[in-house]
Amino acid sequence: MHPYGDQAMSETYANGAGRRRASSADVAALAGVSRATVSRCFTDGASIKPETRDRILAAARDLGYEPNLLARMLNKQESNIIAVLTSDFANPFQPALMEALTGRMREEGLTPLLLKGQSATESADALIQLALSYRVAAIVVTVLNASHRMIARCFEADVPLIFLNRVAEDTPAISVCVNSRSGAHRIAEVLVEGGTTRIGMISGKAGSWTNSMRRGGFRQRLDELGYDVLTSIQADFSYEGGRVAALEMMDAYPRLNAIYACNDAMAFGAMDAIRYDRGRRVPDDIAVIGFDDVPVAAWGAYRLTTIHQPVAQLVEQTIHILKRPDRGLALSEQAFLHDGHFVQRLTTSPVKLGDGDTDERDPPPA
Amino acid sequence: MHPYGDQAMSETYANGAGRRRASSADVAALAGVSRATVSRCFTDGASIKPETRDRILAAARDLGYEPNLLARMLNKQESNIIAVLTSDFANPFQPALMEALTGRMREEGLTPLLLKGQSATESADALIQLALSYRVAAIVVTVLNASHRMIARCFEADVPLIFLNRVAEDTPAISVCVNSRSGAHRIAEVLVEGGTTRIGMISGKAGSWTNSMRRGGFRQRLDELGYDVLTSIQADFSYEGGRVAALEMMDAYPRLNAIYACNDAMAFGAMDAIRYDRGRRVPDDIAVIGFDDVPVAAWGAYRLTTIHQPVAQLVEQTIHILKRPDRGLALSEQAFLHDGHFVQRLTTSPVKLGDGDTDERDPPPA
DNA sequence: ACACGGCATGAACACCTTTGCAAACCTTTT
DNA sequence: AAAAGGTTTGCAAAGGTGTTCATGCCGTGT
Description:
The structure is a homodimer.
Chain A: H1 5-15, H2 24-31, H3 35-42, H4 50-63, H5 69-76, E1 81-86, H6 93-107, E2 111-116, H7 125-133, E3 138-141, H8 148-156, E4 161-164, E5 174-178, H9 180-193, E6 199-203, H10 209-224, E7 231-234, H11 239-252, E8 258-261, H12 264-277, E9 287-289, E10 306-308, H13 311-323, E11 335-338, E12 341-344, E13 358-359
Helix pairs in contact in A: 2-3, 2-4, 6-13, 9-10, 11-12
The structure holds a DNA duplex.
């Protein structure tokens, strides 16, 4: 209609209620150059005359312009957004992991897009689908499960999938994880060496890799040492689940003298059940041992003996993979297992320490 | 070089390592329609013949096509991505808030882009700048501070800014928050009514709105009741900070019989200092009261008397604002204050309950 | 037989950036 | 003075989508 259609249109939009953000075209017009030059002004390494650069920068400042990252990602076919899939913040290990992960990501210029599932058992497929639609650079999964079909789709789309804190077997996906099996072995040894062999085990959610390792590894080593668990209850990795399970165990097996909880949160529940619900003592009556070494485990009220997960190492490994030029797509190694070390505190009888273990029986100086 | 430069290039890319995802053009070609029709197929309410729709859907499935959300956002000038700015996962209140917030967002089809600052005192300006570059639909800030200049820039760009769990005064930004002042008033009343009036106060980070309210409100009401704090130490909202402060107080003021910590984490530290570092009793020797009612406050080891923050309500209010057609830009009301209620547990002498308060002196049934 | 309304579709433009290529400019050398 | 060489810049296309407008088709009512 209007001979200068374009011109007129942008004028109209600029005045309307939802006034448009300044684009590179606006800056270009004001500075008297082309859009391409404006673009070059914001990409370093591009050749541009210092004088015009200053002029453009001034114009950009006047208009409050800054590059539209969406358009840039679309054009360059690459993004610095990483989908982070998780489901559960209640387990205190998750916040600790998230803190480290998102902190390091920011330092490396990566931005996490947080996709939260409802429950740990839920499949992450829908969330992965969503992540692919956002054309993220990579996907990091912490607690959820994914179908083989969906994992395959990610790799078809050249989007690497990293399982953090869990191993995905028989898939092209990468896993970064603590060696839960060897940690569970150590726990079995500690309880036996400490002379507490009438053991109740509180395991976590069935179907989780973490749980089957922590559970299976413990049983295996205990068996090798010539013992067996007295009782075993499956809970859900939560404080309340651990508490209820411990109550049940104590009532059914009065001679129980040790509880191994497959994570710290359940161990805290068990300790509170022992001390406050039943009025018994830790470790004199019943020893307790956990797994994770979340920050609360060092608190005065618990001082929990446990296996420390090297969160910083796990995160560093993950970041390292993400920063590779291929973001880990061409990686030959699939699983990166890090060793957790044993931390001795006050909820078990003292045992001899191995290499890399730490002793915190004396509280840190005030 | 090559006479068919462009053609050859895209062929190369298509075959090489990073093969291109299917676009709507590919689907259109396969189904024998135009791109516009493919687009209509994925927007409901558009008129399209059922037969061709099926044909297009089949083609899309064969090619593994799904709409590119980046391109869509760029085109429609609207996004469902919300920037969530935070700094600290160590304080156990943050995970609880985050869990609720991100969970509800997902239910509403909003996707949080997580931008984490290094420390609570750091300015969020750089993160807000980044969020604006991503053209997010709105920005939710939890613990960080922002300059007036940057807040103004957000509103110039029509991006609403919501402060969650903190009030930003004298700005166009919206605040959703618990009424910390009235909560602090209640705490003062509880301690006085309980007969514990030789009080030490452990406050949080200076310069935070939350802290000045929780601190100022407490002092004010205490003054009105005819008392004053015995001592006051400024800490940093952390467990360890609370523990060290409590030790210092106990050593300097042997007759101290109550500690008010401006959040639960510091209260836990104080309790552990009292019980495990100094071997005294809570509440018999020293009463302790916190603020937040994080999940751990209900655990057997602490059973902390505190003020409950209605997390679900706060989140619901935030979601409600985000879902408004104007995302809250045209809101006349700036601050939404919700009342927290008093939760009585075992760390203070029992007092008469007011309206909406809850009593958890008896532990929940096993 | 013709005009008309409703529906389905395609062409073209817009969103905002980056980039390959070619043209224009400036400086220096022969 | 002109050619050579390097730097700076603009043009146009690409990246994938949504949307307006015009066109074509079909059926209906007169």
